[in-house]
Amino acid sequence: MADLQGIADAVIAGQLETVTELAQAAVDEGVAPEEIIDQGLIAGMNVVGVKFKANEFYVPEVLIAARAMHGGMDIVKPLLADASASSKGKVVIGTVKGDLHDIGKNLVAMMLEGGGYEVVDLAVDVPPEKFIEAVKTEGVDVIALSALLTTTMPGMKDTIDAVAAAGLTGKVKVIIGGAPVTQNYADEIGADGYAPDAASAVDLVAELL
Hints:
- This protein starts with a helix and ends with a helix.
- It is 55% helix and 11% strand.
- It is globular, with a radius of gyration of 17 Å.
- Strands 2-1-3-4-5 form a 5-stranded parallel beta sheet, with helices on both faces.
- The protein folds into 2 domains: 4-83, Methyltransferase, Methionine Synthase (B12-binding Domains), Chain A, domain 1; 87-208, Cobalamin-binding domain (Rossmann fold, 3-Layer(aba) Sandwich).
- The protein has helices spanning 4-13, 16-28, 33-53, 59-76, 103-114, 128-138, 154-165, 183-189, 198-208; strands at 90-95, 118-121, 142-146, 173-177, 193-194.
- The protein contains 9 helices and 5 strands, in the order H-H-H-H-E-H-E-H-E-H-E-H-E-H.
- By secondary structure, it is of the alpha/beta class.
- Strand 1, helix 5 and strand 2 form a beta-alpha-beta unit.
C-alpha cells in the first residue's frame, strides 16, 4: 500500500530522497498522480505552512521542505494527463521594479505550488508591463507583487494602474506582500489583497479564486 502519509511526513521533515523514493513507489503501485500530490506532497506542505505561521518553522525549514516537495513533483507531474487540469489557478509572481529581493517571493511561489497552484515566476526587478504581458500570454488569475524596500513600493501601485489601463481590472486579482507592506497600503492602492507571510498568501489566493 502506497505510503502517502509517509510522503507528507518526509516533506515536512525536508527529506528529499525519502520523498522521491516514496513518490516513485506510489507511482509504481499505480496510485493516481493527483492523489500523490494532494494527499502526500500538498498535505505535507500544508502542515509546513501551519508550522511556519505558528513560528515553529522558519524560512530555512520551509525552503528545505519545499525542495523535498519539488523532488516529488518532478516525479509525479509528467504523469498528469493535463497539468492545468489539476491546477487550482495560475499565479504570476515577481518582485517589483527596482527591487532585487527574492527570498520572500520564492517562499510564496513555493508555498503556492505546494498549494496546488501553477506559478509563473518573473523573478526580480519586474516592470508593470511584464506582469501585464504574463497575464495576457499565460492566462493568469492572480498577480502577486513583492517589495522589500519602501522605495520600491510605488512599483506596486504602478502595476495596479497598468492592470487598469490594460482593461484587466476585475479579470485578474492583484495581491501584495513584503516586509514594509501593510493592509492599509493595499487598500490605498486598490490591491485585491495583502498577505503578511507566505502561508497567508496561499489562503488569500484561495479566497480570491
